[in-house]
Amino acid sequence: MNFLTYLFYGLPSLLVLIWWTRRRQRLEKISAEVHEETRAAGLTESASLHPIIDPMRCIACGNCVWRPLRSCSGASDAVWRFRS
C-alpha cells in the first residue's frame, strides 16, 4: 500500500518539479541574454530622470506631487523643470 501511495503522489510531483525547473532555467537564460543586450546597448538608465512639465498642458491634478520620482525612477531628489 505504501509503495502505491508514493507512486501515485510522488511520480506526478516529481514530473511537475522537473518541468518547472527546466522552464525556470530556460526563462532565466532568456532574461540573462536580454539583460546583456541591454547593457551592451547602454540602455541601463531611464530616458529621463527629471520630467519636463509643460505648464500649458498641466491640468493641476497633483499626480506629480503625490507620486514622487523616488518611487518610480530611483531619483533621490525630485527636480522639476518647466518648459518655457
Mean pLDDT: 77
Number of helices: 3
Provide the spatial order of strands within the biggest beta sheet.
1-2
The gross shape turns out to be elongated
Strands, helices and their partners?
Elements: H1 2-41, E1 52-53, H2 63-66, H3 69-73, E2 81-82
Parallel strand pairs: 1-2
What is this entry, summarized?
58% of the residues lie in helices and 5% in strands. The protein has helices at residues 2-41, 63-66, 69-73; strands spanning 52-53, 81-82.
Question: Can you offer a commentary on this structure?
Answer:
The protein has 84 residues and is mainly alpha-helical. The chain folds into two domains: 1-44; 47-84, no CATH class. Helices cover 58% and strands 5% of the residues. It contains three helices and two strands; from the N terminus they run H-E-H-H-E. It has helices spanning 2-41, 63-66, 69-73, and strands at residues 52-53, 81-82. Strands 1-2 form a two-stranded parallel ribbon. The radius of gyration is 25 Å and the shape is elongated. The termini are far apart. The model is unreliable at 68-78 (pLDDT under 50).
